Backbone:
């Protein structure tokens, strides 16, 4: 404290002589990156099944962290949005990073103090997995004719195909043949070698 120019007045009169002025020094600390308080934040993670529509990561909660790593009056702020549509082995995420703000008791404006912490985080992730499409051959019954008879190409049912938005399944056919009377277990099979699924003009 530099008190060389100190003055204490009452009205226009100096009353400095009535005080024994005592100054006390304090430490000056410059914190390097390694000694900053460490805070680690983990974003939300969710796995959804492909449904043909844009899907949004459920941020309930948006993130988690060890509250004991922050002092009183500090809070994490992390406002992000993660969306995805197509199934992918790589999760959808965001480049938005969390921040640390000092809010005190709420009576003063909050201050961004992120740089005062060693803040690390795991980015939020939305994983969209493939949808099960089940194509089941249906039983084919024919009267004995003495000749080889083939299963019709459309002897199958489909479940799991997205209906909204409408998608079209193509390149599927059932196959199988028999001649003599009897039940041929598993004889009708599905040929999906040319399968295609389109939405409008896109695969």
Residues:
């Amino acid at each position: 404290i530099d008190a060389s120019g100190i003055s204490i007045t009452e009205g226009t009169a100096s009353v400095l002589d009535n005080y024994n002025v005592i100054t006390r020094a304090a430490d000056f600390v410059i914190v390097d990156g390694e000694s900053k308080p460490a805070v680690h934040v983990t974003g939300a993670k969710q796995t959804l099944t492909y449904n043909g529509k844009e899907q949004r990561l459920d941020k309930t909660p948006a993130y988690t962290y060890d509250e004991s790593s922050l002092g009183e009056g500090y809070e994490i702020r992390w406002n992000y949005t993660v969306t995805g549509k197509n199934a992918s082995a790589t999760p959808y995420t965001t480049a938005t990073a969390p921040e640390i703000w000092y809010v005190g008791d709420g009576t003063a404006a909050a201050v961004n103090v992120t740089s005062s912490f060693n803040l690390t985080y795991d980015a939020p992730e939305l994983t969209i997995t493939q949808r099960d499409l089940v194509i089941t051959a249906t039983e084919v019954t024919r009267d004995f004719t003495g000749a080889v008879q083939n299963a019709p190409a459309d002897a199958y049912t489909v479940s799991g195909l997205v209906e909204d938005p409408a998608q079209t399944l193509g390149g599927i056919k059932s196959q199988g043949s028999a001649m003599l009377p009897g039940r041929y277990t598993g004889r009708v099979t599905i040929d999906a070698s040319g399968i295609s699924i389109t939405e409008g003009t896109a695969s």
